[in-house]
Design brief:
By secondary structure, the chain is α+β, with helices and mostly antiparallel strands. It contains eight helices and 14 strands. The strands form three sheets. Strands 5, 6, 9, 10, 11, 13 and 14 form a seven-stranded mixed sheet that branches. Strand 13 and strand 14 form a beta hairpin.
Length: 273
Amino acid sequence: MARAGAWLGAGWLSRQALAASADRPTPLESIQSYNNYYEFSSSKEAVRLLAQNLTTSPWNIQIEGEVARPFSIGLEDLMRRFPGEERIYRLRCVEGWSMVIPWNGFPLARLIHLAQPNGQAKYVEFVSLHRPAEMIGQRQPGGLVWPYREALRLDEALHSLAFLATGLYGEALPKQNGAPLRLVVPWKYGFKQAKAITHIRFLRDMPRGSWQLAAASEYGFYGNVNPDVPHPRWSQKREVRIGELRKRPTLPFNGYAEQVAHLYAGLDPRAQI
């Protein structure tokens, strides 16, 4: 495992320095117990129980689309190919709550380089598991269209902060947190971070994500954290860290502006939600 640390806007921090900062990791119990995962339920607390019936082994990921090397790979083979490291990142939900999570996994760019996207590839789409027999929320009429889909521009996906998580707190990723493979993009709202990924597709044209399809007036393609652009139904200026009572200011790009703001130079901030 690579060295422990957190990229929190000012460089890598040791666990000791992090413990003394305002961004102490959220306790494991809270991370495991409070989850948005509509494939199981709209109740954050119920997800922990309902997700336990999900079969996560064996697990294959299909790499498709505008690549020189389309392939299928098992999760165990993928983890052997890319040794894990720890990244402690902030997570900000569009609903106004946040966590700090010690993820384990590997940079998304490593998998992209393995696939060798061609000159036509402009976007990377992530498709989640569709298995109504085990994901009971997928049986409900209305709501989201399954399987869950989200996407990044290729340059976003290649950024060094973009991460594929296979664990947290040094253990295997809990099922309710997106096991066995989920996307982590810390400068974006949580809805952008697809769970239980089965397909990664390289596309020419911008795809539409599941929440964008369900409510285009509230959810756009980018999903960048911006305290100055409100959700249509609430402000994004402040957030509540799970386990705390006080509200804290929301940071532009969730505190990662120094690393990622250049990706959106010239793009209207209101178009980045």
